[in-house]
């Protein structure tokens, strides 16, 4: 329950663990029926949908089900993308199917939530494409989990030396 006059986490606003598990279950059913994405995901584990739901839950401010359970770490999540050779067409289809799934399960569609959600998907999927062309994980094994909030873009970093 969200208390009055408090800013909820993205996890709470989205609807919690159950809605994220429902989202990833529906989404990966679509992925396995998609000609472009099926080859990438055809060998995913039976627990993949739950692991991804728990990863998103933790990143969005929910319980640490992913990193404190048996599921993994940010390092481990990155390692799953290594060598997958993802490209822009796959990335865009992945986002399209995920957002369609969000609508189908009636996730919040207010502009603030969707802005934060799309920002995270853009950020994460672009990192996945970059890492998919690598063979070695660029992260340290102790790298903390990302934390995503409502955020307000501040613009690119420009050092004082560029002035």
TrEMBL record:
CDD domains found in the cross-reference section: TrHb2_O-like (cd14775)
InterPro entries in alphabetical order: Globin-like_sf, Globin/Proto, Hemoglobin_trunc
A GO MF label: metal ion binding
Keywords associated with the record: Heme, Iron, Metal-binding, Transport
Positions annotated to bind heme: 51
Any single Pfam family the record assigns to this protein: Bac_globin
Domain of life: Bacteria
Keyword Phosphoprotein: no
Protein name: Hemoglobin
Annotated organism of origin: Dyadobacter koreensis
């Amino acid at each position: 329950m969200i208390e009055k006059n408090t800013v909820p986490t993205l996890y709470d606003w989205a609807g919690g663990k159950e809605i994220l598990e429902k989202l990833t279950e529906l989404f990966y059913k679509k992925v396995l029926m998609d000609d472009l994405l099926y080859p990438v995901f055809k060998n995913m584990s039976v627990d993949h949908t739950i692991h991804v739901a728990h990863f998103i839950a933790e990143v969005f401010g929910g319980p640490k089900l992913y990193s404190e359970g048996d599921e993994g770490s940010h390092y481990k999540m990155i390692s799953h993308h290594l060598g997958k050779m993802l490209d822009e067409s796959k990335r865009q289809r992945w986002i399209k199917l995920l957002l369609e799934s969000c609508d189908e399960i009636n996730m919040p569609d207010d502009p603030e939530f969707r802005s934060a959600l799309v920002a995270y998907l853009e950020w994460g999927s672009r990192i996945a494409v970059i890492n998919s062309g690598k063979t070695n994980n660029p992260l340290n094994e102790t790298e903390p989990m990302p934390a995503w909030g409502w955020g307000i873009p501040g613009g690119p970093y420009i050092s004082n030396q560029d002035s």
